[in-house]
């Protein structure tokens, strides 16, 4: 393998004179700046570097939908297939007003590295439609889903491209995608999507899988740092699917949850929150803001509370150069995608914070999606204990592989995870050779 000469520096785009590079806020370039560093350290061949920096296929479709009032609305939808060298493309479908091609490219690349970190036989993809489902009826969302599915049907299939839920989509939407695809194929194809209802081929344990994965890698990090779980204080930002399950399982593993938050703000008790009361409150009132016990804190204050473990499990870009220095946690488990900016990473590294990067920390979800696909294809379903023990094995092994890679190359865990992932994808490209 020769020394890599990267065609262009990270976080830049080729300027209009085709000779200089300009800085960009493009989310794809932001994310790929980590890819660039890992590729440089791996001495990736320039040709492979160019291949892995581009999506394989990008589809843009117009989706006409008849609204309940009889009018026709036309939505724009995307599906980006980033890389399929290791297997079928895997990645969610989001319905959101912020959806754009750039974001789809970034998320599809992210899925490629995430699947490779946990060594699943999948590539990466992402899809979405620019819309605001909160303003649409169920019928309109169903018609949008079915028309979008039929517009991208050539790419879909258990062997080619397998969607899953993402922002503002859920198991109901996945059921419609599966049904539309099956109607076109003239037979039932459960393995075309994951995150389906259990009654129609979904997997037990899928709902809890991402939070469970967070608990497992946090436990492994604390073990590696020689810190016993009892007495470890945990702060969780975001009390949704990922954050609430992570908090619950970390408490069951012996840690003390001292603060949690949602979009309405956070609650803090240095002696430990009564999680049973918190869950009962959220079940009844949805948001944490009126929770009667503990001190109320803002989401900003929450990040810098005294604790051993911080789990950002809500939004991207919440740990920045402005607050990274004030963070007191020794371990950060990135339940959310992209919660830490590149500038914050440098500060956290200098402070010696042990960051478990998103592409490892929240990979439990896609791992159980893989189990769902395997079960659908085999037509044989596992009990929850089997799902959880197989998830545990993959998360522990991936944690060891990422941290070993980071130690071997003297890099942080994030670059270690990217190096592991890129090396796996690149190895398959080399073995397969190039079809000319
Ligand atoms: P969710 O919608 O179930 O929960 C999100 C939580 O974040 C809610 O409690 C919400 O109130 C809170 N929140 C929203 N805005 C906030 C703000 N400004 N400040 C603080 N909290 C805020 O979503 P989820 O499925 O738990 O996903 C959370 C994150 O994890 C996202 O980044 C998602 O991409 C990532 N993720 C989820 C999965 C999965 O399987 N669900 C897998 C991988 C990654």
Description of the structure:
The protein is an alpha/beta fold and 436 residues long. Among the domains are: 58-200, 3-Layer(aba) Sandwich (Rossmann fold); 209-361, 3-Layer(aba) Sandwich (Rossmann fold). The protein contains 14 helices and 14 strands. Helix 3 links the parallel strand 5 and strand 6 (123-129). Nicotinamide-adenine-dinucleotide binds at residues 210, 237-243, 261-263, 299, 313-315, 335-337, 362, 365.
What is this structure, in a nutshell?
The chain has 14 helices and 14 strands.
Q: Let me know the number of strands.
A: 14
Average pLDDT value? Answer: 93
Using only C-alpha atoms, the radius of gyration works out to 22 Å
User: Per DSSP, what share of the residues sits in E-state strands of 2 or more residues?
Assistant: 15-25%
User: How many helices?
Assistant: 14
Helix content range of the residues, please? 40-55%
Structural class: alpha/beta
Topology:
Layout: E1 12-14, E2 21-23, H1 27-41, H2 46-52, E3 57-66, E4 72-83, E5 89-95, H3 101-117, E6 123-129, H4 138-151, E7 161-165, H5 171-185, H6 206-224, E8 233-237, H7 241-252, E9 256-262, E10 265-268, H8 275-285, E11 295-297, H9 299-303, E12 309-312, E13 331-333, H10 342-351, E14 354-356, H11 358-361, H12 364-378, H13 384-409, H14 413-432
Helix pairs in contact: 1-3, 1-14, 3-14, 4-5, 6-7, 6-12, 6-13, 12-13, 13-14
Nicotinamide-adenine-dinucleotide (NAD) is lined by residues 210, 237-243, 261-263, 299, 313-315, 335-337, 362, 365.
